[in-house]
């Protein structure tokens, strides 16, 4: 059951990703991107990391895609179509990405991954919160504070830039 | 860990997704679709972090934490980028990359 689900989700991810970068209508590209992000959240649920699945659905599928759709509606005609891509550029870019993918897949197939033997710890939200705010070993309180300042700065900057 | 699915299959999916994102990043001429390709790339990297943590080091939370920080940075980046795109659209009436070739005027 889980295996079938994994291959189904992978097919949705890859198919919608390809459609998202090749479709001619920009709103459809955003919709395909939404499907990719939701299927990725499904992968996290399949791996039993429920907190990250929820974060993926809320922030990516619920936040960023809505932001992108807003900006599309503010800057485009609704039935705007792209010009077709030049064939030469299309071919060269395709070859470059294909070669990169081949190199990476070769590296993955050659490497043997050895897992640690230590017992697994639970991945519930309590564990995440404790580690996120702990200042002992492997604590993440400093990156947490830094990223909160970064988010505040980004919010102020976005308002400042879009206002004038 | 899921029985019956080797870790390499997850890595293959994320690698292909990453390079689809790279292809879109290079071939598109519209700023919003370039931003969407960047989201694809970041998403593939997030899958890698989570899968490595889940399969190889289940006694730690490092990869999950990195995924959370990547998502937060992606949100900040999308907010600023979209503000810039809207500003550019007001000035040039177009958001194609070849029309936006001046830093300041």
Structure description:
- The complex is a heterodimer of chains A (164) and B (105).
- With 164 residues, chain A is mostly helical.
- Chain A has two domains: 1-81, Up-down Bundle (Four Helix Bundle (Hemerythrin (Met), subunit A)), CATH 1.20.120; 124-164.
- Chain A has helices at residues 2-22, 26-46, 50-75, 87-110, 125-132, 141-163.
- In chain A, helix 2 runs antiparallel to helix 3 (50-75).
- The longest helix of chain A has 26 residues, at 50-75.
- Chain A is globular and about 55 Å long.
- The N and C termini of chain A lie far apart (54 Å).
- By secondary structure, chain B is mostly helical.
- Chain B has a single domain, classed as Helix Hairpins, CATH 1.10.287.3510.
- Chain B has helices spanning 7-27, 31-56, 62-92.
- At the A-B interface, helix 1, helix 2, helix 3, helix 4 and helix 5 of A face helix 1, helix 2 and helix 3 of B.
């Amino acid at each position: 059951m889980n295996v079938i689900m994994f291959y189904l989700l992978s097919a949705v991810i890859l198919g919608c990703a390809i459609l998202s970068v090749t479709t001619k209508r920009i709103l459809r590209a955003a919709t395909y991107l939404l499907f990719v992000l939701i299927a990725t959240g499904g992968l996290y649920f399949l791996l039993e990391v429920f907190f990250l699945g929820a974060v993926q659905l809320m922030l990516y599928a619920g936040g960023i895609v809505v932001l992108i759709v807003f900006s599309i509606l503010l800057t485009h005609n609704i039935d705007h179509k792209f010009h077709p891509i030049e064939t030469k550029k299309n071919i060269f870019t395709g070859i470059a990405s294909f070669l990169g993918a081949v190199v990476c897949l070769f590296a993955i197939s050659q490497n043997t991954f050895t897992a640690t033997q230590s017992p697994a710890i639970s991945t519930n939200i309590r564990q995440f919160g404790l580690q996120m705010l702990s200042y002992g070993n492997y604590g993440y309180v400093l990156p947490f504070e830094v990223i909160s300042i970064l988010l505040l700065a980004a919010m102020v900057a976005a308002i400042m830039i879009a206002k004038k | 860990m899921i029985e019956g699915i080797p870790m390499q299959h997850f890595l293959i999916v994320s690698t292909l997704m990453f390079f689809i994102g790279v292809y879109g990043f290079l071939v598109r001429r519209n700023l919003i679709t370039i931003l969407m390709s960047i989201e694809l790339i970041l998403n593939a990297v997030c899958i890698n972090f989570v899968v490595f943590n889940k399969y190889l080091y289940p006694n730690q939370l490092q990869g999950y934490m990195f995924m959370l920080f990547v998502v937060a940075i992606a949100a900040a980046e999308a907010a600023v980028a979209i503000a810039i795109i809207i500003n550019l659209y007001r000035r040039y009436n177009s958001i194609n990359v070849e029309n936006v070739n001046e830093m300041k005027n």
